[in-house]
Structure formats: C-alpha cells, structure tokens
Fold each of these.
Amino acid sequence: MPLVSELEGDRPLHGQREAVGISGGQQDFVPAVTMVVDGVALCRTVEATQRATEQPFSVPTGCDQRRAQAGVSSEQWCKPRCACSRADLPANPASPSAMGGCFSKPKPVEVKIEVVIPEKERSKEEMSPNGKASPLIYKVNGTARHYHLEEHPIASNPYHNPKDVVEASVCHVKDLENGQMREVDLGCGKALLIKENGEFHAVGHKCPHYGAPLVKGVLSKGRVRCPWHGACFNISTGDIEDFPGLDSLPRFQSMDSHPEQIALRPKEFFRSYDIEVLTEMQVAAVDVKNKTAVFKDGFKMEYNKLLIATGNTPKALSCKGKEVENVFNIRTPEDASRVVKLATSKNVVIVGASFLGMEVAAYLTERAHSVSVVELEEVPFKKFFGERVGRAVMKMFESNRVKFYMQTEVSELREQESKLKEVVLKSGKVLRADVCVVGIGAVPATGFLKQSGINIDSKGFIVVNKMMQTNVPGVFAAGDAVTFPLSLRNNKKVNVPHWQMAHMHGRVAALNMLAHGVELSTVPYLWTAMFGKSIRYAGHGEGFDDVVIQGDLDELKFVAFYTKSDEVVAVASMNYDPIVSKVAEVLAAGRTIRKRDVELFVRHGKTGDMSWLTGKGS
C-alpha cells in the first residue's frame, strides 16, 4: 500500500480583507498535510484493509468519477500491479489521480510508504563544506531553509507535483493491530505508521513543535496527541487540531536568542498572504458604534470584524528604588539577551517564583555567580502544583546552587552610580545584586477598552463565550487577556495564560470571524522545563482540594492528580510520559475521572485498575 505524502502548502483561513487584529504578538495560520494513497484520497487505505481481511471489495463513491477523468477502464483501474511501477496504467498529465489501486485477489503484502522528492530540489543537491551531501533545501513561507530528515517530520515537504518517488517496505499489514503506532525507517528518514479501524495512515514521526517522538504519544479517535506538550494531529491529513505547533519544526532557542530566530512566522509569510502588520503602533480606544479602532497618534482604522489579543502587562515592583538600572521585566528577546549578558559571572536576584522567574533562575545558574529567588509563598508553585510537588521542585533548584528567600518580599532596591547594587528584603536580609528579574505576575492589557462598551470583568479580563465572541457583535477576543467558559470545569469562566490555549483561541476566533460556528472545547495543556527536566500539566486545577501522587517525588519521577471533591480536574507529571497526554484525551472525550479510581491506581501501582484511562470508566 504505497502512501504518498503531499503538503498542500500554507493554507490560511481565507476571507476578505475585512478583519483587524489588535495584538501584542503575531497571529498564525496552520498548514494542512494530506496523505494520499496512489493519488486517490478517497481510496486511501482500502487496498490494505481488503487485503488483510480478504473480503470482496467495492470501489467507494468518487472512484468511478476519478477513473473516468483519468481515461482508465474498470479493468485497468482494478488491474493488479507492482507498487514500484506505474507503467501499467495510462497517464493523464492533467490528473495526478490517474494512478489506481490494486483491488485484485488478496495476497500477503507489505505496507509501503512512498516519499516524494521534487525533481527541482534533487537538482539542487550539492556538497557541503564538510564534504557531506547537503540536506534537502526547501521553502516555507518564502524562506529557504535546510531540511534535515532526522529532525523534521517526513510529511513536511511543501511542494506539489511530485517528480520522483522513493519506496520503502516497512511491515506486513498484519504486523499492526488496530490502535497501534510504529516508527518506521524509510531509508532517507522516518515516518509514523498508524493503524486505526482497519486503516493505515502515515504521518511525520516527530511533533513539529519540539520534535517529540509521536510514537510515544496517545492515539485516540483519529488523532495522535504529542507526549510532551499535548499538540494533536489528525492521522489522516496531518492537520493540527490542538496546539502548540506550526508547519515546520520551530526553533525555540534559549534566552539569548535573536528575535528573528524565534519569530513564529517570517515577514515574508505576511506579505505572501496580504496581511498588513503595523508595529510600534498603539490602539488608544475602540469605537464599537462606528466600528473603528482609534490609534494613539489619531489614526483611525475601520473594521467589519475585530479581534483583540493584547495579552498581559507584567506587574512592576512598587518599592523604593524601583527605577534603578538593571531591573527587568522580561518582555522581549532583547530583554532576555540583555539579562544574560549582564548576569554572566554576576549576582542575580529573581523576585517571584512564577513560571518565568523559575525558568530564568534555572537558565542562569550555569552563567551567573549566584542566583537568589525571593517569594511570598512558602514553596514555589504552591497554588498551581501543590505544596508537595512545589517542595520537590524547590529541592531540585537548591541542589543546583539556587538560594531561596521565602515568605518575604522586596522593600528596597539600592544603587551605586545609578546601577543596582543590593536588594533589601522586608525580613531585613540584604542581598548582593547586579541584576534583578521581576516575575510577580501580570494584569490584562485592556485599559483602553474601559469606555468601549465591551464587557470587562472586575480583574480587567475581556469576557468571551465559547466562540471567542464578546458582548459586542463583530468583536472577538483571544489569548491571555480573556476569560472564557471551560467545558471540563462545567463552563466555569477561567483565564489560562499559556501557549497552547492562546493558539486555540486564535484558531477558534478566526473561524468564527468567518462565520464557521466553531466552539472552543480544548483541554488546557502546558509544560515547563528546568535543568533538563520537564513538568507536563493538563486540565485546570484552580481550587483543587487534594493531590493524589503516584511515584517518587525525591527521584523526580511522579504523576500528581489534582482533585476537587470526587473529580480529577488536572494532572501533572515528571518523567512519567505519556500519562498527562492520556489524561488529556480522557478529559477531551468528556469523560470524568474519579478520585477513587486514581487512588486505587496509586495503591496498587502498575497492577492497578486503569480502565479510567482506556475509556471504559466513567
């Protein structure tokens, strides 16, 4: 069963140029990957299914039309042939779908995957300076990039009209059971082979977000969920259905990255799709009656649909000396690069054991002379991960030379020659400091909307429904600045200021601005990485009243279930993949995980009842 992977290119959500977005960042579109069997999408896996079951076969609806368009008789269309040869079928240059399937009497066969290499790219192969063949060069959004097969999913080739094919026999059709995934070697790279409901699918083997091996992910109802960060991909088309992730493997560099290295889309992308991006401009007000965005300099822009995605503004210290130099709220790549440069071999104080504060602290330990963290709570992440997990994380940091000053706050920043010299705590302790990074939270950047008539709650968040609509017709909002109804918490209005949710907000808002009537139903999924270890988290644990832990916190190998009353509302893990993705799939299916189920699982260890994870429980 030859499979040809064909990337249909970047497909933005098309519509008239009548949508205006107000944003603190870039809005992104997602490509689609179509898997085609012998050029006939409707017959994608029928050949392998029929051969495996040895049942009579009838051509699906649509195949007769394709056969007629190709000028092929019924006998020729169903003629047995070798997967390596196309000489036995007449070609129709106008129709890439002229290649038929082999629907004759079943014989033992192997699953074959065809990898497309465009002729124009094969001609570009050159020798690199080190004497090795250069990797395939391809274009994404108008920018030439190098394509390393071991680092990118095989389905990321964006060209049409394949000119050459490389085949690889990877397994027998009976080698995989329904619901199984296998990473297969194609000789020139790898692919993920999947069997579900009797059909085979082949997609890229690594998540395009961060390169996670998808074979270790969770397969459920036609999609595979990344084991690391929870992105979901349709196994038939490769389309991304939950975030994070883009069309190519992103490079999420360390703190001293250059802005162009971590941009979600290059400038050429926006030019290609006629998207006007106005930078260094600020909207001062929105006139919903006249459908106009009013800029700070007086410029006005009319809209038919408006998306507000202004994000948050970081909180600043209010203590004495807050204006001294070398005190940072990290907001931009330039901020991060400057912190790294100034902190090298110096004394750093981090104010706030937030995600930002702790990640900065972890990154700087190998560069700075000393790193100290000041926090009001007793342990880091107490409200988010609970005291026991927070204490385990704190212990990991202490073993990496990070000093904590808990249950206190900053009373003064002292300077010498206008630059930071010392941080004075309310406890009386004085810390030497050359650089101070502040991560004490943020507030929604919505002050300009106070007189607009757009509904804002008491904390300043924009209130939206499941379609990301505000109370004003034609006005939508997304990202960190909104509260929205979360399905898995009985439509409780929540704010989830994390990467994956912002991606999904943007997608749902865009679809509804185009009148598609799509509702938000994703499960929040986030992660944080420190000292080479990642904590993964799914759900929404706000207000949890108990934590059930399986594993060893001291060894940093555990899974924590956050419960409210008798229901699991969130899960976190470290070195316990892919359980967080499994729980996310259960929650995404609308099923309830009971506290008693996970308590039995923990009590009996690996031999415990896991029906609640396999879809047979509540």
Note: Residues 499-513 form the longest helix (15 residues).
Amino acid sequence: MSTLDMFIDYRGIFIDRQPHLAVILPKQKQIFRQKNCVFHFKFTSIFKTMELFDKVNARFPCRRKIIKTLTDLVGHSEEILPSAIHIYGHSGTGKTSLLKYFLKEAICGNNNTFSVAFVNCVENYTPKILFENILDLLCYNSDKEHAVKSEHLKDFVEQLCQLHTNPNAHYIIALDNAERLRDMDANVLPSLLRMQQLSGLNLCVILITQIPLEKFYCKTSIDDPVVVYFPQYTKSETIEILTNDFKNARKLLSFHLRRNCYDVNELTNKVKVIGTITKEFFHNYLNLFLGVFYKACRDLSELKITARKCFIYYMEPILDGTVNMSDVSRLWRCVAGQLRSALAQVYIRSGQIEKTPATGSNDKEIVKIAQSLELPYYGKYLLIAAFLASYNSSKEDKRLFVKNHGKRRKRMQTINANAKMTEKMSTYIGPKSFSVDRLLAIFYAILEEKVGLTCNLLSQISTLVNLKLLSFVSGENVMDGTSRLQCTISLEFVVCISQVVGFNARQYLKDFN
C-alpha cells in the first residue's frame, strides 16, 4: 500500500482509505464521514506529511515502521508534541542519521513553525554548555543578537519562557549520546523530560542513546517518555541496504582502475567489463561477503566501507580474464583470503585502498596496526584472554590452563576428530561468545602476577569494547553476569600483541595442541 493511499486523522494516525468514505472538499477542510466519526484536517497538511514520510522512507529503507511512528509523533505542524521521546538501539542502526534527516525535512516543510536544537552530549559535557548551546540553536531565527547565558537550570527555563513570540511554534531538543546526562547534576535529566510543562511551550525533548530507558531511572524518578526502539538490521535488510550502494561501489572500482592501470587499451577493456556488472551480480557478492562479516560486525557504516573495498578484490580475477563472472565457486576461492584479512581489520583498517596484496603483505599490515595500538599492560593480557576464550571450547579450559589436569584418554572419537582438524579449526570457523567470568578466569590463568579484581581492571574491558576489539553479543554491561562478549581480532593480530608482552598465544590454542 503506497503512501498516497493513506490519510491521517486528527490525531496524526494513518488510516486506510475506504471506498465508502464520503469526501467533501470545502475551501479549507476535508471532512471524512465513516459511521459517526468525523475527521477534520487541513488539506495541505496531509500532503506535507505524506511528502515528509516518502522522502525519509526513500533515504532510509527498512525503517518504514519507525519513520511512520516519528511522523505520527512529531511530523504534524498542527498537533501538540509529546513531552519527551526516548530513542535507543545499538550503534550503526541509523538513529542519529535518520533523526537528523527527518528533522531537517520537517524544518524545510514547515519553515515558520519548527525550531530544532540538535546537540551532542559528549561535546556539551556540563549543564552550562548544554543549556547555552540549546538556547543559541533555538533562538537562531529570533531577533536576539547577543549570545544567551545560562548558568543554572532556572536560567535555562526562564530563557525558554521568553520564546512565546509565536504561539504556533514547535520546539524540538534532540540530545545525542544522552546517556551522558546521567553524569550531570541529578536535576538535569528529570527537568529536561518535563521541560514542556515547565516552559509552557509546545516543546519535545528527544533522547538518542544506546541504552534502554531502565538505565536512566534515578532516585528522584523521571517521567516516562515515548519509547522508540531501533532494532538491528537483519541479514536480508543489510543486503537490501548495501545493494543500494551498487553505483558507489562501481564508481570506486573504476577510480581504482584508472589510478593503477597505465595501459590505455587494457584500461578501456576493463572499463567495458565494469559496465556489464549488474545489480544482481553485486547482490550475489554481498551474500558471500555477509556470510563472512555478518556474525562479527553489524555496524552498517563499517560494512558498507569494507564491502566497497573487498569488491575490488572480488573483481580482480574477472578483470584479468582468469575467471568468468558466472563462476561463483572460483570467485569465492579467489576472494576468501582477502575477506578473512579484511575481517581482522574491520574496525582498525588503515583506510587506504591499495592494489590487491599478497598474503605476506596482509600479515605485515596487520602487524603494523597491532604494533601501533597502545594498550595498558593488563589490557593486552585481557585482549589475549578474550581471543583464547573466543577460539577455544570451554571444555578445553581445564586441559589448556590448569597445570595438573590429569591424563587425557585417547578415544576413537577423539582420534577421528583430530583426523579432520584442518576442516574444523576454530581459528578458521570464527569467534564464539564467552562470559565475562570466563574471560577473567583465563586472564588470571595466563598472568603470572597476582592482581586484584579492581574497577580499573574492569574498565579496561570496557575500553576494549569501545575500541571495537571486543563486541557484546548479549547485554551491554561488563558488571552484568549474563552479558556475553566476542573477540573481533585475528590470529596474526593477537600473536603480535602476545609477542610484545612475551607470551606464546599459540601454546594455549586448541588448534595447535
């Protein structure tokens, strides 16, 4: 059902057009009659809302329900805004970019009614800076020439109360990384959620964060806002979004050829081959690509950058004439090594597109990145322990990390399993999840020193997560006993890190013992 086949009632809720609805078109209003219900709205506002919905939906596919919810909440220029909205979800799910574009289009469609202040709480780390930047952005279209000053929350509310110049105005305050508000004064967050009531304005405060609303509850209590959840993209949705990047990937491939190919005739032939690439071929490539990357990385922006880079490697044998474009199995064998090397650098890539490197040069690049990474001494051991936890089965922990673990009986089942070791090596299958308790147990087993479990040690695990060297599989709190993590680095990377601290990581891997 298209957007033009929808209408909006007086509350801003989409309803299907029914054939028995009687439509009357006076000069200013349309009246829909269905039984005893009468819906009033301005004729022009319908198409403004539809146009806003269509623009955002075309720009951000697979987010139709969320865009519809935001349109119902803040997309109507004639409705009262909700007092607060809580938007949360994992990183890379499009929260900030979608809301920025949505508010930008809302301002363009309603020039005289919408005023938006979009601020980042990481940059505005004190209440004074936060309040003054919000007031500067909201007063941008007003007659105030001098910068406003707001030392305290009381001054901020008084300044907002002076914005009653336009009774039809809508004010939206969007706070990105809103979890930083918990580190400010105890009255900041509850007051912001009640700012519509305190100021008397048609004002909405939008919190954009990665944590759920329950993490914001405090002793002073807060008013519950409207909650909008951004789920992670499924594999099919990720393929659909990345397929829309087909033209950019092909342009990048052409640019790479022109920069590295110096024979004019050869360049002309290769450009003709690039012109024959279809969207279906790119879709099949993305299926192979996500088969390697989707388990380790869900960040859409990282996947988009890496997919463009690996597409150059995928096209190399086709452009050289050694592999046919329809031979998927041979193409996979040619690109499998490059995909594994790119997987090790998905969050710590160098950012440069080079010619297709050999395996040795890939290892050198990984070693270079690992040597340039500055981590604390115990942080390196935690990273090694995380890798061992990801690539070893928990059943093998006693044999690998306990000195007097007893004799191990050789059974036929074990002998047959070892016969196919190369097919079942954990370092080739991929990382598995582990608990924080198991991580710390391995950490203490491989560390010769006796170290107490302190807040500083636990904070280094959070640092590894922020550096994308570890990622949460479930839960988002290190202190939570149910949270599970996953290591995102490669074997070559961890070997280089272990050499720095004088530790033999291969000795504690099941694949090599």
Note: The radius of gyration is 28 Å.
Amino acid sequence: MHYDEILQQIGSFGFYQKRVYSMLAFPCMSVGALMFVAYVVLNTPKHRCKIPLYENDTFEVQDERHARLINFTIPPSDDPLLVYDKCQVYDVTNVTSLEGYSQLDNTRLVKCSEWVYDKSVFYDTFTSVNNIVCEDALKTSHIQMFFFVGVFAGSLISGLISDRFGRTFNTCLCFSLTFVFAVAVTFSPGFYTFATGQFFIGACAMGGFTSITIHSMEMVGPEKRLWTGMLVEIFFPIGTCFLALMAYLIRSWQWTNLAIAIPMVFYLSFWWIIPESPRWLISKSRKKEALKIIQTAAKVNSRQAPDDVSYITGTSLSSNQGNMWHVLRSPVLLRRWLILCFTWMVVSMTYYGVTMNAGNIGGNFYLNFFLMGLVEIPGVMFAMLILDRLGRRWSNAGTMIAGGVACLSTIPTALLGSPSLQPLTITLALVGKASAAAAFAIVYMFTAEILPTMVRNVGLGTCSCAARIGGMLAPYIAKSGELIGGKFGKVEPLVIFGALSVIAGLMLLLLPETLGQQLPDTIKDGEMFGRKKNKQSNIETEVASPFIESRQ
C-alpha cells in the first residue's frame, strides 16, 4: 500500500493537517516580510548636500537665513521634480565663514562628502546613516542582489539538509540561523558586513520556507497537494503588510529590522510541536515513528488508523530519471523549457521589482507598500478561481499580459497627466503587482504539468533558478528609475516590467494546454503532448524536489 492511500484512510486534509498547516503559516509570513525588509531599510530618503561649515544643517528649511545659505551653496537640480542638486555644491574652498557664501561666484561645482536627509518618511535608514548615495547609490541594489544570491544558494543546500535530516530539523535550523543573522545585520558597521548578512538571511529564510512548503504538501492527500502549495502564496503578502505596518510605526531601520527578526524566536518551538513528515520518515525506514504520527492524525481526524505501516511504501522516484541533456536534445521540449524559464524570470522580476518601485511612483510610501502586499491576496485567489475554468495556459498568459498592459498604461498617466492622475498611476501599478502574484501562483503548476515526469524535477529546478536570476535583476531595474529621475523615471521600471510581461504572456500561448489532459511521462510523451488529443486524467503531479515552492 502506498502512503497516499493511508492519507485517504486517515483524512487527506482533516483537522490535524489544518492545525499543522496553520502553525506553518506563521514562518511563511516572516519570510514574506524578510523578502522586502532590505528594500525598506535601504530606502534612500530625499537628500541634498550638507552646507559646508554649517553644523546644524537640516533638509528642512529652518528660516530665511537658512534658505539663503542653501541657495548660495547648493546648485539647482537638473531633475524638474527636485529643487536642489543631490550630489554637488558650489566650490567654497576659499570661504572661511558662513557670511562669505553670499560672495561666491557660483560657477565651479564640486562633489560633496556630507549630506542631509528628509526625515518626514524615515527617521533613518541604513542608506542615510552610511551615506550610500550619489556615486555609491547602486550599492543598495548590490545588497539586495546578494540577498537573492543567498536565496539561490539556500534553496539548493537546504533541500539536501531537509532530505538528510528531516523537514522539521531543517525548518528549526534555518529559522534559528535567520534570527541570528537578522539580529547581526541590525548592528552591522558597514556595507560589506551588511551585504554578507543579507546573503545568509536570504539563504536561511528561503531554506526554511522550502522545508515548510514541502512539509505542508507531504502531509496532505494528492488531490489537495498543489492547492496547499498555492495557498502558501497568501501568507507571503500578510508578512509584507506586517512589514509595512512596522516600518510606518517605527521609522528607524534598526528597530524595524528587529521587529521582523524577533518573532522568529518562537519558531524554535516547532521542534516540539510540529511533527516530522511521515512520508519522509517512511522513506528513511523509520516506520515506527511514522506510525505514531499517523495514528495521532487519525485520532484527531476521527478516522480509523492502521495498526501497522511496515507494508507502506513512500514516494519512490523512477529509476529512469532524466536530466537536462534529454531536454536539450529535443527541439520541442527545449523550446517549451526556454519559454518557461523566460516566464519564471520575468514573473519573479516583476513581482519583486514593482514592489521595490513603490516609493518612486508618488503618494504615501507606507500606503503604497502596504497595498502592494495586500493586492496579492485577491491576485492569488483569482488565480485559484480561473485555473480550472480557463485552463493553465490562458490563465498564466492572461495574468501576465494583463499585468504587463497595466504597467505600460502608467506611461500616459505619469508623463502626460496632471498630479491629479497620480492615484491612477498607483492603481495601475497595483494591478500589475496583483497580476504578477497570480501568475507566480499559476506558473509552478503549469510547468509541473507540461514537463514529462522523467525530467520534471530537473526542469522545475532550472526554471526556479531562472526565477532567482529575475529576483537578482529586479533591484537594479527598480533603482534605475530613481537614477534617471524626472517624470519618466517614476514609471521607467514599470515600462520594463510591463513590456517583458506582455512578451512572456504571448510566448506562453505557444505552449499546449494541460488542464484535463493525461500528463506526459517519457520524453516521447512530452514531444507528442499537445499534438494529439489526450485522454482526460485526474493524475496529480507529485514533485520530489527542493524547488517545490514557486515564490523564489
């Protein structure tokens, strides 16, 4: 008897599984916050050069004398949306007192080394404390890129640890280390230590999330497996909204970082309250331990439990597993795989990038950021609603194209419209984010169904790697709008995300539909898939891979 048959007997998604699933939701929220906390603490406030020799200079104008000193020493900005230059001052080499500023010839400009920052949004950020502006502005994107490199590495390594030592062990280990590194970066003295800490936070947080996703999908029946995986997507934005709330209430980067890190201490209790995955225990021949958990689940679910599990088999992968060479040798599968990889990269880039651009589109930073998280919930629910109605292909392509068009539609509202159209620009960006969240929820299922069984794991793994590349590129594209400045700079990142999303959506239409079709097993099946009418099948795709989660 297979373990899935035991799940049907004791309840495939009864009260026991729901209770465990609910507890696993909390660390998922923390990961959702951790994915964007670097964006918040690295935010670059409005700033200008500090007036030389003026000890108590502030970004806000103090009085008429202060305003005159600013005009005497700081040149006007080339950016029509800014008043003063952010990186240069008039040469005051020969001036020895503030009174001498009124006699400057105002011709020679020099780079400044000190800045003052607007404190109306943040009291301080890591960027403002360490003056990571002007020539160093891209360092903030480098740090966020390091985080996503950590996500890439952590998913690979944690999968091995999870398979060797168990899901619960890996979850507790990863979140313990995440807490340690999150606290450590709070007191980081500079760029290099902060960037290194972000790498390990990304690795450990996503490593823990990988285990949780696999754990939650292993404890439910086949008919609920992918749906529980998609529901995890809803816990992510709750964490993002929590981060927005904490940032609004605290407004200091160190305390905001600690507010996200401290709750992870409670996840150490999972060692005692979260049972190990029976499926994993069976695969390791620890069937007595698995039996105790199965009997407990049956009792809680008011079902009959088996008396013995020695005859139960876990999930055994076929010995005829394929590799990437099988995909590369097949023109049909290669074309489909390239389209899917491009889609994963674009949807990840758009998902993270649109949120990272929230502070650049105008309006209230905290409200924009909060809404960017909130709209994901209806986005994912909408994806779950249309999947079995429109099919995987049209659902995935439709959400990508809709999000892309919404992002591209910000061009006229930002460039040609008046300030009164700013709410419309923000609304279109929110539609783009909701569509990206929906597409992110769909693309995993679509990919798992379209690839043949013998290359499904390796195919999903490489697509997941492509998504991480998109995550690494997102902060640079988002930052480019800030560096360009002006009205176009506000929407330039959205234009890039939108154009790529439309292209990816159109390319998805070249792929065959998978809804109600018998899924391919061999390379030959995969090549013929979509070329002939397949019999309807209720086969549930089961993926044994460390890349089981989509939101990375």
Note: The longest strand covers residues 47-49.
Amino acid sequence: MGSGREKRRPMHRLPRPVTYAEATAALRGATCGRGAGGHGAAAAEPAGVRLRRVLGAVLPAARRAALRVVRGPAGAARRAAQVLVVGCGNSELSEQMYDAGMCEDIVNIDISDAVIHQMQERSASKRPKMSYLLMDMLQMDFPDALFQVVLDKGTLDAILTDEEEATLAKVDRMFAEISRVLQVGGRYLCISLAQAHVLKKAVEYFSQEGWVVRVHQVASSGDKQQFVLPIFVYVMTKFKKVPGSAPQILEICPEEEDKPMRMESAERLVEAVKDRQHYALLRSQLSKASSGEQLSLDLCSKDSGRPRYTLHVVDSPTMKPSRDNHFAIFIIPQGRETEWLFGTEEGRRQLAASAGFRRLVTAALHREQHYEGMAGIQAELSGKVMELAPPGLPARQQVPFLSVGGDIGVRTVQHRDISALSGEYVVEDVKGDDKCYFRRLVFLSNRNVVQSEARLLAPAPLPGQKKRRKDRKKPSPTEPPSAIDKSYLCCEHHKAMVAGLCLLGSPDPLPGAPLTVLVVGLGGGSLPLFLHDYFSQARVAVVEIDPSMLEVATRWFGFSQGDRMQVHISDGLDYVAKLAAEASAQYDAIMFDVDSKDLTVGMSCPPPAFVEKPFLQKVKTILKPEGVFVLNLVCRDARLKESVLATLREVFPLLYTRRIDGEVNEILFCQPGPEGPRDPAELLARARALEGALRQPGRPWDSSYVLADMLQAVKIL
C-alpha cells in the first residue's frame, strides 16, 4: 500500500523525575517518623514547616473528602461517624479536622510510643474526644466494622517501597485489617503520591474485593513553592463481595470538582495517573525556564478520555523581550496539522518567529471531536494553556489567540473502517489555506502521516445551465466538492518519482512512448493514475497487498482499472519473485511506495525485506537494462539507512538520491546499466522537454509542478 509522506516529528524529553523515595519523604515530612509503616520517631525538620509547604493543598482536600464521608447527604440525621487514622505520626491533619468541626470522634494509631505520647500531650486539653493509641495497624485490637472512615496520609507509600514478597505480604495484612474494621458503605481514604506499583496494588486489591475505587487528583494551591509532584486521594468504598456481581468500578477525578471518568481497567487507571504526573513535571519545567526543546502533550476529552488537543510549546529565547511579546496561543485549523509549518519542529520554530512571541503554544484539533468555533475553543483552553505560561509573564497580561484566516478550518470524515492488514483508517476532506479542499487517507495507527491525498475539484455548471445571479445558491462552506483532480500530485515524493522517468534511456520521446511500469503500493492510487492519464502509451501494473485499499481508492479517490491499468492483490515480495522466475527485462520503470507495519524498526518505508540484496537482485532481473527503479525511502535510523544504501549500490551501479524538503522521505533512483551518470544539464533539458510534452492544450496541469525543479536537487551516490 502507499507509504505516505512522513513529516519530521519533534522529540521531547521530560525533566528528571523526582525519585519516589524523595517524594514520599517530602509527602510525610514532619508529619510522621521513619519507622516501619511510617510510624516511629519524629522527623528532624520542625513540625509544620514542610507540611505547610508541601501539603498546603492536601489538607483542605482531605477535610472536604472526610466531611462528605462523615456527614453524608445534607440534612441527613445519623450518628456521628468514627474516623480511624492509621500511622498518624505527628501530623496536624487530625487536629485540623477536629478544630474545623468536621468530626470529633477520631481515633489515631501509631506504633511509636514517643509519637503517641507527644500527640496525647498536644491534644489532651484542647481535643478531649480525640484519642491516640499505641497500636500496630497490621494487627489492630478493634472489633469488626467499627469505623466508617479509615484515613491514611502517606503510610501506604512509606510501606510499599518495593515489590518484594515480604513487602507485598505486609501490605496485604494492612489492607485486610482496614477492610475488617471498616463498615459496609464505609470508605478508606489514602493520600498518596501514586507511584505506579503502589496505585496498581491498591486498585487491584480493593477492586477484586468488590469495592468501588475512585482516584482524586488534589487541586493545586497555586503556591510556586509547592512540591512538583501532584498528590492524589484514593477513595475506596466498601461493598459486600457478591459472586457474579457487576463489573468492577474504577474512576478518576482529574481535578477536585470534576465529574469522575470511568476507566476500563486498573492498567488504564494507572496510565491516566501517570499522564497527570508527567504533566505536572512538564508544567514545573516550563514555569522555571525556557525550554531548548519543543515539548508536546495531549489534552483529552473529559467525556471520552480520547485526545482532544495536541499542544506543542515552542520557545524563542533569543527573541528580544518586550511588553507584549511574552506568550501567545496558535490554533491550527482542522486537517492542517500535518503541513510542514505546523507538523514539523522547524516549521513551528518559523511560525513562532513570524508570530513574534517568545513562547508560542500551538494547538492541533483532533478528528471526530466537536468544536464550538474559535470562541468556544478559546474559552475551553484559556485556563489550561495559562498553566504553560513562561516565567516572568506580567500579571494581568492579555494572552492572544492566533490562527490562519480567523476560523478553525473544516474537516469532514467521509468514511471510517477497519482493514485486516492496515487497522483502523479514515477518509476525510479538509480545507487548505487557499480555500481548496483535499481528500486524505490516514491510518489511525500513525495519525501524523497522510497516507494518500488528492485535491478536490469544485463542480462546474453544465452547458446551458447558467443561473441568474439572484437565483445562484452559494455553496456551503462546510460542504467540500467531491470530484477528484487527477492532474494534481499532492505528495512531493510522488512528483519526484514521476520526474525520475527522465532517466530512462529509451530513444523514444516521452510521454507518447510505450512504457511498462510496475508500481508496488496503491494507497489512494494518485501515482498510478497520473502515470496512466499523462503517459498515453503506458501500461501500468499495480501490486497491493490489502484489498481494502483497492476499495478505498476506487470509491473515494477516483481510481479505476482498464486495458492499461491492472491491480494485482498480492504481496509485493511474492509478485516480484514470481515475475523474476518467469522472464527478465519486463519493465521500463519499477516504483516502490509501500509502507512498513512494523513501527519498531527505524525505517517506515519500505519494509526491510524489500531492500535485502536477494530481493533487489530479483527487481533488477525484471527491469530493462536502460530502465529505472525508483524507491521511496523513509528511514530515521542513520546506520540502517547507510546499510540500505550500501546494499543498493552493490546491486545497481548507478544510484541517484533526491531529498524531499521538510519531510523524512528520500527518493532513490537506481539504474542497472553500465552507462555513467547523466550530465545535470542534460537531465534538466530532458525534464523541461517532458513537461512541455505533458502540458497539452485542453489537458489540466498543476502549474506548481515543475519537473526540472524535482531533478535540480538530485545527487549521485
């Protein structure tokens, strides 16, 4: 199938994560000691200093969470609930809950005699109904179902420091004891930094017991001195375990007041928490200094959890600062995110420079998401993008939203399906910058690559059907035309591949000469269609492994077969091998434009088997001595690329290369003949002659396509 064009995508590196040993220590800080399970001697830092700095946002959230649990629905008459705080240390949390009137019946336990004695003295006269008991939470003396709330602030994090068998057994005993002393309908509230193995252990244990699991992200206090990592509260609600009951309920609340989002598995819940941790680290980095690299992140829909916006942060630290050039947001119109200016690192850098801002955040809109115009997007993004503001942004600074043409563009998904070989794909129409519409084929496994593209033609009125001016109906701006412009090659690498025909050694002048062309990889069919339509005597054979692509090309891209155009549904490797076994020197030109499904290899086009020496020798066998083999190469691995080029040189004595500006694609022209390379002046003359012959009166031609330009940058390897 067609390989598509691949833009250079930016790589980004997150700042060094704080280790969870450091983070757990900061979370517990002066609130507890260092003994097993987080209860022991008091920390050396003065009580409350680190608590105020690191947990300024946690205590109010914990109070509110406990308040909802303890008091229940507004107006409900019920007995005051008992709250158990495990591994209390010398934390102020219980005292603040008591003093705020949230709950007085609070029992605190710890295994450190020194801590219990200290806390009893601190609260004896002020809080007579609150008790401190010397007790091991792994083996508590309380009767079953005594408490409605069990509160844990950092104790689980302190215990579960590794995944050794002894550690996991200790955590199982902790959870079993919490479950035993908690009433049905009661809640276990655990304040945690949510290290992946800690969260996974807690979620799997309680969900398997039939509890409802919800993870809340604690809202930031806005204090710049606050600890970088976000803090989470696990809310585990106890239900009776009933065999064959409803599936487990796993939820996450990204912000304190947000509607919870349902997660389909414990793994997905852990990934969602990781995303928020990485975002917090990224925010911290961006708030302190300009980034030398372009950082990117996805903002997901609260309803579906799918990506809704992709943001790239582009800093221009060398730009001279002024009062109004600190920060701006650029909304990329729908469907244009793959263009060079928006879809490559260098393009975005130029965009930021031309916009004139020291930090520019670009926002790409995702397909199959509904957007309420530019004003709606601005309202939706304002709060979130301000979290990415640069350091030193003046207070009350107006941050502008920019775009192209003042609208959000048009993207219409015409068709969506799943191929057994290519996976899920879409055919969509998008509006370009010159008000032209384009139809695109995109494989959703690689959303940043346009697999195939064609320009759409506006419908022309039939002869004799001119309407009076007042009767003319303006076309809807959201209804793209449907006719395919077969004269237009959207992909630059396709233009270069066609220009490579100038290397043919045939004495007959193109394009009227009889040609036999083999194209491996159909895609939307624009390349073989162009060859068929503009080279009137060419016989084109196309090999495509995926039958779904033939259906897509025929239905959506104007492709059709005929006497001079035949499609063979077959693996290109097998088809070429079969041809080589039958006869030699069959084709004037062979073109490979086929993508690889193995994303782990540093070469996305073609699959590695297509550039192995035994197969290339078969390609050479079926190529005429004066013919040309044209290969679309997309390789990010420098060593692998050099190996491919070396193999090609072993098989083909003459090798030309043509880089595609702004893309990873590189077109290779390989010839088997012993003749030396053509003179550059001769190549340009042949290109101009061929273009002149192709530009026939009455036949449409894309004026931006200059064959000589395609060959001017060709290099001989």
Note: The longest helix spans residues 266-288.
